[in-house]
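RECORD TYPE: inverse folding
INPUT: structure tokens
STRUCTURE:
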């Protein structure tokens, strides 16, 4: 086994570690997420170049920030991605930030987004984190925003200087 793995009825989730066989899939999913985001109205200031750098350095771009990343796959095909990193102590003590949740069209309806988000929350609890933060654009990512609210995330004050307009900042206390 390449990394930490969780089996579900119709898919599996693996934590991506250095040299993991799914690193190329994780990179492709992360770049798909970026292309989706820049295609949305109101997110013109999203920096795709930064995302390309994150993708090129996976999984280190998140591991070096006290986090990691996961890939969900079904029938041998990578269908979903999520990452997390430590939040600055000036924002919150012992907290993570959930980043880059993305599920390909053919993975939608399988509850992959929920499972990936829950996998990060489970890791946060195991690591004794106090909270998980995230930001999202409800107008562009309505399904994700509803998912987060359904999973117990609540609105919070802005915790970063993200230049994207119409962001919703959310937190889930653990």
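DESIGNED SEQUENCE:
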């Amino acid at each position: 086994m390449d990394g930490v793995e969780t089996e579900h009825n119709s898919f599996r989730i693996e934590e991506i570690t250095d040299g993991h066989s799914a690193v190329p899939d994780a990179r492709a999913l992360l770049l798909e997420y970026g292309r989706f985001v820049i295609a949305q109205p109101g997110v013109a200031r999203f920096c795709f170049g930064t995302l390309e750098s994150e993708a090129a350095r996976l999984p280190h771009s998140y591991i070096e920030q006290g986090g990691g990343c996961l890939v969900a796959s079904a029938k041998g095909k990578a269908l979903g991605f999520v990452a997390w990193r430590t939040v600055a102590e000036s924002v919150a003590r012992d907290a993570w930030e959930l980043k880059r949740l993305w599920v390909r069209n053919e993975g939608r309806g399988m509850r992959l987004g929920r499972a990936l988000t829950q996998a990060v929350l489970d890791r946060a609890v195991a690591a004794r984190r106090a909270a998980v933060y995230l930001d999202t654009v409800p107008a562009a990512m309505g399904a994700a925003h509803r998912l987060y609210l359904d999973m117990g995330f609540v609105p919070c004050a802005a915790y970063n200087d993200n230049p994207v307009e119409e962001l919703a900042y959310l937190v889930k206390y653990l």
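NOTES: The radius of gyration is 15 Å.
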